[in-house]
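Action item from last meeting closed. Structure (324 res):
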């Protein structure tokens, strides 16, 4: 049996935030001054997450992304990923990380079955990188990106959130970085999620990003399929992607749900609604789980509403809980 929403989109992809704790304090990710972490006794255990993944795998789930908070701060991650990798229906396991701990567990993650990873990097200037992350060292991350390459992750995608007057003067530097490190830099529009300071003026649109890139490089459209990212090959040989959730939407192909570390699940990143699955998961109640999932999928809208409501505010959980 497959699960689909009211618009015929088939569910295949689960993003799992395994912790809302992060060693970084990125300014655009969470209102850290007022942020309250989930109580330890409310955090799903790995066996709980394995239960939901293996159950949903029988209903069409094929792809899992592990995120956070910072997923690499949670102990036992490689062993947990090995267990997911044993579920035969799961075709792909990916991880989104700030990269700071890849030197410690990159090798194990690769062995556990992660083939490709996304690493967040919002500035190539040491002072700005330290500012946005809450004091962390750019050189260390660059070293870890190179190390990830040696571990054999392929591709490595760099997630770069573009914020006007912060890093919009680094777009061309990121294009060079993509070429020199053989990574795919993905420029992401700044989204209004979870009570952070956001307004439309801070958003640099995907179109503006492409225009800036085109001043320096010849750009060929790689015209990829169903991905949220529009990918381009540049004349320096680099591949870059542009993700425009604010000025455009790519809801048409949305096949995902987002499970958070407290057992709540979100039908859409840009909706405040979430549904509590904690007890259903703890009770290992397959029927209730699938019936609830069917109802959650019905909550998905045809498309998100930022485009219609420019003053849109999402005051639900922040990205640091949802995981992006
Ligand atoms: N700690 C990990 C990391 O840094 O990649 C995983 C969690 S983080 C919430 C996942 C992704 O969400 C990161 O790439 C981050 O840049 C992105 N993100 C966080 N807040 C965002 C926002 N307001 N708009 C767009 N992307 C955001």
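Sequence:
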């Amino acid at each position: 049996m497959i699960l689909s929403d009211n618009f015929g989109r088939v569910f295949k992809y689960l993003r799992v935030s395994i912790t809302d704790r992060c060693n970084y304090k990125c300014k655009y990710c969470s209102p850290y001054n007022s942020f309250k972490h989930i109580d330890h006794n409310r955090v799903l255990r790995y066996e709980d997450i394995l239960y939901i993944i293996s159950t949903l795998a029988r209903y069409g789930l094929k792809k899992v992304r592990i995120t956070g908070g910072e997923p690499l701060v949670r102990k036992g991650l490689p062993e947990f990923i090995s267990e997911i990798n044993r579920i035969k229906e799961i075709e792909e396991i990916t991880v989104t990380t700030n990269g700071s701990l890849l030197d410690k567990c990159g090798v194990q993650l690769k062995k556990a079955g992660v083939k490709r990873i996304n690493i967040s990097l919002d500035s190539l200037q040491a002072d700005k990188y330290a500012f946005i992350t809450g004091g962390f060292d750019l050189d260390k991350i660059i070293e870890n990106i190179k190390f990830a390459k040696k571990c054999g992750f392929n591709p490595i995608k760099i997630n770069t959130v573009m914020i006007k007057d912060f890093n919009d003067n680094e777009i061309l530097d990121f294009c060079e970085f993509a070429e020199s490190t053989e990574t795919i830099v993905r420029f992401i529009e700044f989204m209004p999620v979870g009570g952070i300071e956001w307004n439309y003026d801070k958003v640099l649109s995907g179109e503006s990003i492409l225009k800036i890139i085109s001043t320096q490089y010849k750009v060929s459209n790689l015209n990829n399929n169903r991905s949220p990212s529009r990918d381009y090959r540049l004349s320096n040989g680099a591949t870059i992607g542009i993700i425009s959730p604010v000025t455009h939407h790519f809801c048409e192909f949305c096949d995902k749900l987002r499970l958070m570390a407290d057992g709540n699940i979100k039908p859409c990143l840009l909706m405040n609604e979430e549904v509590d699955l904690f007890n259903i998961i703890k009770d290992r109640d397959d029927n209730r789980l699938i019936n609830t999932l069917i109802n959650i999928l019905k909550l998905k809208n045809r498309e998100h509403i930022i485009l219609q409501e420019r003053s849109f505010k999402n005051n639900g959980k922040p990205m640091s809980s949802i995981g992006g």
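Note appended to the action item: The CA atoms of residues 19 and 294 lie 25 Å apart.
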